[in-house]
Design brief:
With 161 residues, the chain is an all-alpha fold. Helix content is 76%, strand content 0%. The chain folds into 2 domains: 71 residues; 67 residues, Arc Repressor Mutant, subunit A.
Length: 161
């Protein structure tokens, strides 16, 4: 008979903190603790005694769940920065650096039509191809290209050059 999950948490909750320390996680501790709990629950549900000690299995499950979350957050941040890179490359004047803030992103989105926002979010943030966006929206690739062209034109007008 399996132990209850509550007793597993009692025994292994320090393991979650150990993994966070090993990965140098000192921000979003509550979020990562929850990820650790979920991984511990998954380990509890899928553990096979024939494959080794539970503590080793749980450690690996918690460790890789936290690594996956860290990668997801880095990818999300990179997508935000790729927005900056794309627009700065397109909108930047020679010799001028244009600082971009979250407020600026919000302002940009407010100036765009719903279709232009679909391009901006799909292409820049979610890193989808123009073809993928077109298929999802049920339009041609040329239509998505037009959304891009008009979005960039609008953004050029509101950029602080």
């Amino acid at each position: 008979m399996k132990e209850s999950f509550e007793s597993i948490v009692e025994q292994y909750h320090l393991l979650i903190y150990h993994v966070m320390k090993k990965l140098n996680i000192y921000t979003n501790v509550d979020e990562y603790y929850q990820i650790g709990l979920i991984a511990l629950w998954e380990a509890h549900e899928h553990y096979d005694k024939a494959k080794g000690k539970f503590s080793s299995f749980a450690f690996k499950k918690i460790y890789w769940s936290m690594i996956s979350e860290m990668r997801r957050q880095i990818k999300t941040k990179s997508a935000q920065y790729s927005l900056t890179d794309e627009l700065l490359h397109t909108l930047q004047t020679e010799g001028k650096d244009i600082p971009i803030s979250n407020e600026m992103y919000e302002e940009w989105l407010a100036h765009l039509s719903p279709c232009q926002r679909k391009w901006l979010i799909g292409y820049i943030v979610n890193e989808k191809t123009l073809k993928e966006i077109a298929e999802e929206e049920g339009v041609s690739v040329n239509t998505v290209k037009q959304w891009r062209i008009t979005a960039i034109k609008k953004l050029k007008k509101i950029m602080p050059l």
